[in-house]
Amino acid sequence: MLNYIWLGLIIVGIIAALSTDFSDILSDKYRNNESIDIILSFDEGIEPSAGKMMSGTVTIDLAYLHAFYGIDIKDDRVVTYPVHMTFSSSEKAIARIPVQEDFPTLWKEMAVAQPTDDGKLAGSIKIISKRDETSYQAEFVSDPLRFIGLQRVTNDGIVGYASTAVTIAIGLIGIMALWLGVMKVAEEAGLVQAIATGLRPIMTRLFPDVPANHPAMGAMILNISANMLGLANAATPLGLKAMEELNKLNKKLGTATDAMVTFLVINTSSVQLIPATVIAIRVSAGSANPTEVIVPMILATATATIAGITAVKLLQRLPVYKKQLD
To answer: How far apart, in whole angstroms, are the C-alpha atoms of residue 31 and residue 16?
Structure first.
């Protein structure tokens, strides 16, 4: 079921991204292939020529720039930014403008979205005429941008988080192997059985409809014991076995009994004495004290379990939540 939920979220994200992208294309948000008037300046005595890699500055009126993109912002400043260029002729160059703190917001967005991903606004510059010994009237055309939203969902979202998941998983291998080994030793030493013995008096009160010697009771006790010690791999088959045995006591198949609902709540809230997975994640993330969460986790999960059991016991008394099983 969780896989279908994730798939649904991915599809919704792609649809939302595409709708935004088509809106940007129809409104020509990024003015692809349209030129912006700039003043290009170099140090005195430097002349552009084919094959040269050069640095200079571009000067632009922000009021003109915002009007060009249809942005309703009143800013009359004239700003100057550094630019790095590679000239293919004496008049044309591939240009990169490094992102500055006072960069126009849209240019920052465009710089991040462009495939170069080097913190610079990519485009081309064409020299129109010479103004004086150090400056030229020129035009700047940014590299075309299309389907930015879809790229973010696929590259930054789906692919990016998949890569992060693999990185975290690899980092967890060592610490998880250690804790699972410790827990296996505890299991072989009889710690799980000891906890199960201590839980039996409580379980018979929580599940009055389940006979004390029924296999379902034993499976539930062992499942909860394994969960308490962080033995998720061992707890899962025990939980499935417990549900299977509880269903044998069900007089109306397809309808959850009070025992089933109560066990599901306890299994979900799961009191954690040793939160091995959380400790492992904190270790892989470089935590200075990864085990400091043990006490808060015990308190949090105990509170969640008590709240869950209380809610179940109260709700199962209400007629609206009861089903006639006879």
So the answer is: 22
The phi, psi pair for 82, rounded to 5°, reads: -70, 155
**Residue pair 305/270 in contact by the 8 Å Cβ criterion:** yes
Cα 21-26-28 angle, rounded to 5 deg = 90
CA angle 63, 65, 68 (to 5 degrees): 110
Position 322 scores a pLDDT of 64
What are the DSSP calls for 126-183, one per residue? EEEEE-SSSEEEEEEEEPP---HHHHIIIIIIIIHHHHHHHHHHHHHHHHHHHHHHHH
User: Is the predicted pLDDT of residue 315 greater than 60, yes or no?
Assistant: yes
HEC assignment per residue over 253-283: CCCCCHHHHHHHHHHHHCCCCCCHHHHHHHH
Structure tokens at 325: 């099983």
C-alpha–C-alpha distance, residues 269 and 218, integer Å: 19
How far apart are the C-alpha atoms of 254 and 60, rounded to whole Å? 71
3-state secondary structure 32-69: CCCCEEEEEECCCCCCCCCCCEEEEEEEEEHHHHHHHH
- Domain limits of the chain? 31-144, 190-321
* pTM of the shown model: 0.51
**In angstroms, rounded to a whole number, what is the distance separating the alpha carbons of residues 9 and 2?**
11
Q: Among 21-30, 200-209, 233-242, which stretch is predicted with the lowest mean pLDDT?
A: 233-242
Give the residue from 250, 223, 248 showing the smallest Cα distance to 234. Answer: 223
Residue 213 Cα to chain centre, angstroms = 46
Under 8 Å between Cβ of 41 and 135: yes
Secondary structure class of 205 (helix, strand, coil)? helix
Distance of CA 299 to the CA centre of its chain: 27
pLDDT per position as a tens digit, 239-289? 888 888 888 888 877 778 888 999 889 888 877 887 777 777 787 777 888
